[in-house]
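Last lecture ended with a question: if I hand you only a sequence, what can you say about the shape of the protein? Today we answer it with a concrete record. The protein is Nucleoside-diphosphate-sugar epimerase. Below, first the input exactly as provided, then the predicted structure, then a couple of comments.
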Amino acid sequence: MNSGVSDVSVLVTGGLGYLGSWMLIALLRQGYRVRASLRDLAQEKQLRATLAPFTTSLHRLSFHRASLLRDEGWDSAMQQCQFVVHTAAPVRRGDYRPQDIIAPTRQATLRILRAARRAGVRRLVLTSSAQAALPPPQGAAISDETQWTGLDDTGTSDTVRAKTLAEQDAWTFVRTHGGPELVTVLPAFIQGPVVSADYSASIGLAARILRGKMPLLPRLGFCLVDVRDLVDLHLRAMTHRDAANQRFIAAGEFLWMQDIAAAYRDAFPERAATISLRSAPDALVRLLALFSGELRQAVTSLGQRREFSSAKAERMLDWRPRPARESLIEGALSLLHKGLA
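The predicted structure:
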C-alpha cells in the first residue's frame, strides 16, 4: 500500500465488469480511496463478495448509483475525486441497429466528461480501443497512436465506429472546454485471469475454445494484452506527469485464433481432443454472418494481420506487456478453476 495516496479519491466507471473489477483491485491495493459507479446499488453486495478474495481494503471502496444513459448521479459520484477512470461502455451484443450502440456510446462519454469538468476532476483516463487506431487499407503494417480509424471505410464495424467517434468526441471536448486533463488508453484483445463470471467477449471466445464449442476457427487474429497489464497502463496514465493529453496503445504479441487454440492444447493435453485447430472457410463465416450480429462485426477482419505498437507507452511510461501465451494460460486456468470452461 502506498500511504501517499490514501487521501486521493478515484472514481471507476464499469467496476462490475472485467477490466473495471481488476481496476478496483489495483487501486485498493495501492491505497487509494475508490468509488465505483453502479446502475443498481443492489449489485454492491455481489461485487464486494467478488473482490474480497483479492484485497483486504474494501473499507476504502464506496458505491454510487449512476447510469451511463442518464445524467443523474454523476455529480455526486465525482464529488472531491481527483481522478476518473472511465472503463464502462453501453455495449450491445447480438443483433442491433447502428444507432443502438453508436449514439449511446458517444453520449455516455460526453456525459462523463461534463460531470468530471463540473466536479473539478484533475485527470480522466478513458478506455478506448486499439480498433480506433486502424490504418487505412493500404497504410502502415503496424499501427500506432498517430492513426485514426477511417470512418468512411465501408468495412468499419459499428462497434469500431462507436469507439472511434466517442474518443474523438472526448478530445474535441477537452480542446473546447480546457479540461479535465484527458488520457486515452487503447487496448487490443484483452486476455488474462477472470475475477468473476462477468467477463468480456474476448474471454468468452477463450472459454468457447476451451469447451470445444468452436469446431471451426475463423481466420481472425489479434494483438493480445493481459488485463493486469492493461490496468497497470491505466494507472501509469492516471499519475504520470507527461501522460496528460496523450493516447497510449496497449498491445502485445499478435496471434491467430489457431495459435491461441494450439497454446491451449499444449497447456492442457487432456483437452486436446476437445480443442479444435480446424480453420473455417471464409465463405462459410460470411454466410453465417448473415444470421449473427457478432459475426457481422468480425467478418471485415477475416485474414487481416492488424498489429499495433505499444512503443509509446513503453518509452514514456516504462510499461511492458507480458508474453501473450502466459496471459492465455493464466486466463484459461482461472476459467477452469471457476468452472467457467
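Comments.
1. Residues 93-97 have pLDDT under 50 and may be disordered.
2. The two ends are 34 Å apart (CA to CA).
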